[in-house]
Design a protein that fits this description.
By secondary structure, the chain is mainly alpha-helical. It is 77% helix and 1% strand. The chain has a two-stranded antiparallel sheet with strand order 1-2. Helix 1 runs antiparallel to helix 2 and helix 3 packs across helix 12. The protein is elongated and about 125 Å long.
Length: 354
């Protein structure tokens, strides 16, 4: 598919247009262009070939991916430069060169600003990546605290009939919560950011039964020291209130569930920004090709300025071919009609002689 694209959809039209535009300038330039395009084929016929595989990208994805090295970029730059030179030279020949130059500048300068915009967008990429890493670390640490909380509650539910009966809602909820937290902790940070927003923090925040069960479990396990080995303190940099620094919990209060939800939202938003900037690398590549095309147009205006006499509306090769085909068709029809007429006359005279 890449070979078909380059030859049929890109190189073949570019070569034809370039030869045509070169002949518009002068016969000498046209002859040089024709020789340059035919040279690879002539060399190949004589057994001289070149390996052009390194000139193509190893892998290319429009969204994100490797667009190729300097060799590939240089080849595409040359192709689009020649294509822009050829098209603008032919299209601009319909008007005077000064008029074309002024019109073309209205396109050239704004696109240059657009290209500059794309080339400076990655300035904030490093900052967003650092924010993403920091937010993910904080999010994972909160998830780890909740994983410890789930293990503590399951142990308390097994150990105490009071907890299993009075905090039955939390005991049942911890069984559902365990695998969700474990799956999030074992996932890659990017996957963790792109997961759908977890519903368990909202349940811990809004369900009064769960809130009552959490208070009971923390009071039974830590205040009454029935499961003192499972109680833990929230690290200073993760505490949401001053009172949380010195207090011990068996299960985190619902305020931390709200923090988990907010951190996940922040993580997802930062990941979207990072992904958007990385995707712009490939979009920037196409902008680069567009700039190369328009740069070829600027060269076309400069090439046209070198002409001693400005030529407009050159003879169209298409119109010339159409006229030649029509002329050949008319001659063929005339010859055919003449032969048919002679054959009919011969058939009419032949019976009279016999």
């Amino acid at each position: 598919m890449p070979t078909f694209f380059y030859f049929v959809l890109l190189l073949l039209p570019t070569s034809v247009l370039n030869v045509r535009a070169s002949f518009y300038l002068s016969y000498r330039v046209g002859a040089i262009s024709l020789f340059a395009w035919l040279l690879p084929g002539v060399l190949a016929i004589n057994g001289i070939t070149f390996d052009v595989t390194p000139l193509g990208p190893d892998k290319f994805q429009f969204g994100e991916g490797f667009t190729g090295g300097i060799e590939c970029a240089a080849v595409n730059l040359a192709i689009f430069l020649i294509l822009g030179w050829s098209l603008v030279l032919l299209a601009g020949s319909l008007w005077s060169r000064d008029r074309v130059k002024h019109i073309y500048d209205h396109i050239w300068y704004p696109l240059g600003l657009v290209a500059a915009l794309y080339f400076v967008t990655d300035v904030s990429l490093k900052s967003y990546e650092e924010d993403f890493q920091t937010t993910d670390e904080k999010f994972a640490r909160y998830l780890a605290l909740y994983a410890d909380s789930v293990r503590n509650v399951k142990a308390a539910c097994k150990q105490s009939p009071l907890v299993s009966s009075e905090a039955a809602a939390l005991c049942q909820f911890s069984n559902q919560l365990q695998w969700q937290i474990q799956a999030a902790l074992e996932s890659h940070p990017t996957v963790r950011a792109r997961m759908s927003s977890p519903d368990w923090p909202r349940a811990l925040i809004n369900d009064p039964e769960l809130a009552k069960s959490i208070d009971l479990v923390n009071s039974w396990g830590c205040d009454q020291q029935n499961l003192d080995s499972g109680c833990f303190k929230v690290p200073i940099d993760m505490a949401l209130a001053m009172n949380d620094i010195d207090r011990r919990y068996l299960f985190l209060p619902k305020s931390y569930a709200d923090a988990v939800e907010k951190y996940h939202q922040s993580l997802a938003e930062t990941d979207k920004k990072v992904t958007s900037i990385k995707r712009s690398f490939n979009i920037r590549y196409f902008v680069f090709l567009g700039v190369a095309f328009l740069a070829g147009g600027k060269l076309a205006n400069a090439s046209r300025a070198l002409l001693a006499v400005d030529k407009t509306k050159p003879r169209s090769w298409v119109a010339w071919c159409v006229r030649r085909l029509l002329s050949l068709l008319v001659k063929t029809l005339n010859v055919t009609f003449s032969l048919v007429k002679r054959l009919i006359d011969f058939c009419r005279r032949y019976p009279q002689k016999s």
